[in-house]
Amino acid sequence: MSRLRIFEENRPQSPLAEYGDHADIARELAGVGVRFEQWVADQPISPGADPDTVIAAYRADIDRLMSEEGYQSVDVISLKPDHPERAALRQKFLSEHTHSEDEVRFFVAGAGQFTLHLGGKVYDILCEQGDLIGVPDGTRHWFDMSESPYFVAIRLFTNKDGWVANFTGDDIAQRFPRMTPHASAR
After folding, report:
1. Are 136 and 34 in contact (CB under 8 A)?
2. Are strands 3-8 and 166-167 parallel, antiparallel or unpaired?
3. Cα 65 to Cα 77: distance, rounded to the nearest angstrom
């Protein structure tokens, strides 16, 4: 079940609020300009699937998003617990950073945790299969996949170079809860 926890930026021990209903999550995130939608992710894709297979399975959704939103490129991140570079990949996304373009992710299998730092608050979002999240450009955030990653996410970019991060140098991400291995990974 997808989940949103909202914290004060200087109180990582206890959330101010927690939501498990998709409509509540979408409403709270819309209030801070973040897109959160539930899409149909019913193709037989499993973590570890190769990018071409994933893109072919979701070609219609990808084409619609690219046409409607002007995205220029797409790729897939697909990880399972035995991936040899899982620790290095996890570390790559764990520090607070921004992008100069919107960050759009459609989770077609498994789960991952986006954490956004906005207006003195921290929004910790567990995204699961079927969730689409759109983080506006310039938003401070980080991403965790747990020490045992198990997810497939389609990533869309307006920048043809793909994922380019601008790290803030703030160590806030180290003070907030990390993602525990998701039930789907067991």
Report:
1. yes
2. unpaired
3. 18
